[in-house]
Amino acid sequence: MAEPRRRVFEPVHERLRGDILAGRLQPGDSVPSERALAEEYGVGRHAVREALKRLEQAGLVRISQGGATRVLDWRDSGGLEVLLDLLEGSRAMPPPELTRAVLETRATIGVDAARRCARRATPEQRAEVRRLAELTAAAVAADAPEIDDTYAALWRAVVVGAGNIAYRLALNSLVMALEGRGEIAAALRPRDTADLRALGSAIAAGEADAAAAAASRLLEPDVDALG
Questions:
Q1: For the chain, what are the domain ranges?
Q2: What value, to the nearest 5°, has the Cα angle with vertex 119 and ends 185 and 111?
Q3: pLDDT tens readout for residues 71-97
Q4: Angle at 121 between CA 140 and CA 156, to 5 degrees
Q5: What is the DSSP string of 23-73?
Q6: CATH fold for the domain made of 10-78
Q7: Could you count the other beta carbons within 10 Å of the beta carbon of residue 218?
Q8: Maximum CA pair distance of the chain?
Q9: What is the rounded distance in angstroms from the CA atom of residue 226 to the CA atom of residue 16?
Q10: Which residue in 226, 189, 14, 184 sits closest to 92, CA to CA?
Q11: What is the rounded distance in angstroms from the CA atom of residue 24 to the CA atom of residue 21?
């Protein structure tokens, strides 16, 4: 299948984004002018404006009408989109501090989502969580190839049952952050079928504290192992 055609603004956007995240452009620095960027990349100024607009939406720059576009400190102004950009720049294993940040966020969301799912989920959602927990436990016991898919589906069901759209969107970003990194995915596979079943049973029974405890036992060891 042919590679998708790149949009005109993308080379400008990628170069500036890379320079900002790598520290070649520091907070407070001015971005090259629209004219300079247009001439350097052989594109129209509309393409440059689109690249800058997307950088501003990601919290990497601030555009001043009639003035310079200045670099922001992405640690203070960026969102989860920046996390994906940082991981994209790590072609092999990401730096340990970045891996730890992703796994700590995953564990924090997972534990609280399990607690809230036990409190808020509908009977149908509780039943689905329990079904997926049992499926995942069976896959773990058999060392079946579908472990990753069923485990991911289990956590999606937990987060959906928690009724928190911010958690759902954050989970999407975290899944994308880890996607395609086989070594990390293998290390994150659950190994304790008892904790999987405990998670499903606690949520099905509406036992919030027990659900959170089971989620913690499943997720926190990953932080220690890889972070």
A1: 10-78, 83-226
A2: 30
A3: 999 999 988 888 878 877 654 446 777
A4: 40
A5: TSS-TTPBPPPHHHHHHHHT--HHHHHHHHHHHHHTTSEE--TTS--EE--
A6: Arc Repressor Mutant, subunit A (1.10.10)
A7: 25
A8: 64
A9: 31
A10: 184
A11: 8
| CB burial string 115-147: b at 16+ within 10 A, e below | bbbbeebeeebbebbbbbbbbbbbbbeeeeeeb
Place of tokens 């969107």: 169
> 70: helix, coil or strand?
strand
Give the Cα separation of 35 and 96 in Å (integer).
Answer: 39
Please enumerate in sequence order all residues whose Cβ is within 8 A of that of 100, keeping only pairs 6 or more positions apart, or say none.
223, 226, 227
Query: Whole-number mean pLDDT of the chain?
Result: 88
CATH class of 83-226: mainly alpha
- Inter-residue contact 126 to 203 (CB < 8 Å): yes
The number of CA neighbours under 13 Å toward the Cβ of 205 is 12
**Quick one: pLDDT band at residue 204, thresholds 50, 70, 90?**
very high
Cα–Cα distance for residue pair 142/150, rounded to 1 Å: 13
| 3-class secondary-structure state, position 71 | strand
Measured CA to CA, the distance from residue 14 to residue 22 in angstroms comes to 12
